[in-house]
């Protein structure tokens, strides 16, 4: 019998993280007196509640996932994050249909950079921040996928972890965690550096923020 509890537990954690990220555009709309902040707040609460139920309801003492579970987790997590990420586009002032909103969210998570929105300048700051955040998180997500999954299949051309399929779980996981922490630190540092340069060369603080996130993620 397949055990889906580790996958559901991690999905719950990812949704909780996404719910926290939703508070960032809410804050921008709140300080600019844009009523979209309410939609971000409600969506954040909904996302957190569902994530908490999954995280607590399927919690185990020691979470261990095999390669098949890792692939399933990757596919489902990207779909689920994109699904909840599309909600602000539907219920905010942008009022996109579900298909367009989901496309916009998937485009962000995959750092494709495509958009179905024609009047970006007329969007609220919250929605603009959310589009940039989706791309920024998508960028680091692709890096984590390349580090944690592809080397185990001996594909991709860069064997960052130099590990075999029969490596014990206790040896491979700390190695993966170490690389993820180092790459994430570099990713954040480059984002901050990019923001500083944009700001120095004449962009406003807000424009520097959204452009640095999309630049680093290549969105």
UniProtKB/TrEMBL annotation:
Its keywords, alphabetically, are: Cell membrane, Ion transport, Membrane, Transmembrane, Transmembrane helix, Transport
Coiled coil regions in record: none
Q: Where is it located? A: Cell membrane
Can you provide one Gene Ontology molecular function annotated for this UniProt record? monoatomic cation transmembrane transporter activity
TM stretches of this protein = 7-28, 40-58, 70-91, 133-153, 179-201
Biological-process GO terms, alphabetical: metal ion transport
Main location (coarse class):
membrane
Q: Name one GO cellular component term.
A: plasma membrane
Keyword Transport among UniProt keywords: yes
The record gives the membrane topology as: Multi-pass membrane protein
**Sorted alphabetically, which InterPro entries does this protein's record hold?**
Cat_transpt
Q: What Pfam families does its record include?
A: TrkH (PF02386)
Q: State whether keyword rRNA-binding applies.
A: no
Q: What is this protein called?
A: Potassium transporter TrkH
Q: Which organism is it from?
A: marine metagenome
């Amino acid at each position: 019998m397949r055990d889906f509890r580790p996958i559901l537990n991690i999905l719950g954690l990812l949704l909780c993280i996404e719910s926290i990220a939703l508070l960032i555009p809410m804050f921008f709309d709140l300080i600019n007196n844009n009523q979209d902040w309410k939609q971000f707040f409600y969506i954040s609460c909904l996302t957190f509640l569902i994530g908490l139920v999954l995280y607590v309801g399927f919690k185990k003492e020691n979470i261990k996932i095999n390669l098949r579970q890792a692939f399933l987790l990757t596919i489902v997590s990207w779909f689920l994050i994109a699904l909840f990420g599309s909600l602000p586009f539907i219920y905010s002032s942008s009022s996109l249909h579900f298909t367009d909103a989901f496309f916009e969210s998937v485009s962000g998570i995959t750092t494709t950079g495509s958009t179905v929105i024609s009047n970006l300048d007329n969007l609220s700051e919250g929605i603009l921040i959310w589009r940039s955040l989706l791309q920024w998180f998508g960028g680091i997500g692709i890096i984590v996928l390349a580090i944690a999954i592809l080397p185990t299949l001996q594909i991709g051309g860069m064997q960052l972890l130099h590990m075999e399929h029969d490596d014990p779980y206790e040896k491979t996981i700390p190695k993966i965690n170490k690389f993820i922490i180092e790459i994430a630190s570099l990713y954040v540092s480059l984002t901050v550096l990019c923001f500083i340069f944009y700001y120095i060369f004449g962009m406003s603080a807000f424009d520097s923020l959204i452009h640095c996130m999309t630049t680093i993620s290549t969105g």
